[in-house]
Write a structure and sequence with these properties.
It is a single chain. This protein is an alpha+beta fold. Helix content is 44%, strand content 14%. It has nine helices and eight strands. The strands form three sheets. It has a four-stranded antiparallel sheet. The longest helix has 28 residues. It is globular and about 70 Å long. The N and C termini lie far apart (61 Å).
Length: 310
């Protein structure tokens, strides 16, 4: 089976782990990435929550604003640190270390995408200074603008900043880790680690305010299935789950062993969800080579030539 990496474009469920391989969507344009093999002992399922998801609502817009606010704060903080490192007040360090440190800070001061910032740099230099929330007015007074042409800051509104800033930074790391783990040895530990990454993705997205009752219920049902199995009774078959797409509804991706017992547990989750909500989730199963086999189209927008009247 093949896993098609679409970084930055939300496709249909045919790539069930697209969110894990899609974190660069946060502020970064789409990139078509290479194909990655899904090991034969691993299987993915998509469970439709029955809740129509939307990335055009107020919640998504406010999260986008908060993300751009966080990026602006980090870039300004990096610029300040560059200035400090060039003065006599800078901590005593070797010239070589200081020069390399300044290069890193200069790069971060001109950073275009939060997903390019490694988690260790975020924690070392910026995390403590990013507020949980900030009012639009306070942000505009201190920073002027958030440098996003799509959204407008409401001075009277309070925006969450820390969660949407942290999410793309750690999500990109989770993506790369997930990709590397797919090539690890075929063990329960491998599946457990992959599932844990998916849970972390899910709750990080929820922290941004983009979850829903339906997707949360499905993820909780997967956890119940996973944790009711112990080594004495054969161990779990399902190992993780996460919301997919733009959030605020939509489908949940589940990872598990490629075996009959996993399929039976997915069917049980379907029935339990229906009993609680009245809706029987549609199950999407399997994968396809996608663009790796069929190719893809590039759509380019041609700007009309401007004619200047004489």
């Amino acid at each position: 089976m093949l896993l098609e990496l679409h970084v930055g474009s939300w496709t249909k469920w045919h790539l069930l782990v697209e969110k894990l391989t899609n974190s660069l969507q946060w502020l970064q344009p789409a990139e078509v990435k290479e194909l990655v093999m899904i090991p034969s002992h691993i299987r993915f399922w998509g469970l439709d929550s029955g809740i129509r998801h939307s990335v055009g609502g107020g919640d998504y817009g406010s999260v986008r604003v908060g993300t751009y606010m966080g990026r602006k704060m980090i870039k300004c903080a990096a610029s300040d640190l560059v200035s400090v490192s060039s003065t006599s007040d800078a901590p005593a360090q070797s010239d070589d270390y200081k020069e390399k440190g300044r290069d890193v800070l200069k790069s971060e001061a001109s950073m275009e995408y939060l997903c390019k910032l490694p988690p260790h740099r975020y924690e070392a230099a910026y995390s403590k200074d990013i507020p949980e929330t900030i009012t639009g007015g306070a942000f505009l007074e201190k920073y002027g603008d958030h440098d996003d042409m799509v959204t407008v800051i409401d001075p009277k509104r309070s925006y969450s900043v820390k969660a949407p800033t942290r999410h793309p930074i750690y999500e990109n790391f989770r993506v790369e880790t997930f990709k590397a783990l797919l090539t690890a040895a075929n063990t329960d530990e491998q599946l457990s680690a992959l599932g844990e990454l998916m849970y972390q993705c899910h709750y990080s997205y929820n922290a941004c305010g983009l979850g829903s009752d339906g997707t949360e219920r499905l993820v909780n049902l997967v956890q119940e299935m996973q944790h009711r199995k112990t080594p004495e009774n054969g161990g779990p078959n399902l190992y993780g789950a996460k919301i997919t797409g733009g959030g605020s509804g939509g489908s949940v991706c589940v990872i598990g062993k490629n075996c009959l017992q996993s399929a039976e547990e997915i069917a049980e989750i379907q029935q339990r969800y229906k009993a609680a909500t009245g809706y029987l989730p549609i199950v999407f199963d399997g994968s396809s080579p996608g663009a790796g086999k069929f190719g893809y189209l590039k759509i380019r927008r041609r700007r009309p030539k401007l004619t200047i009247p004489e």
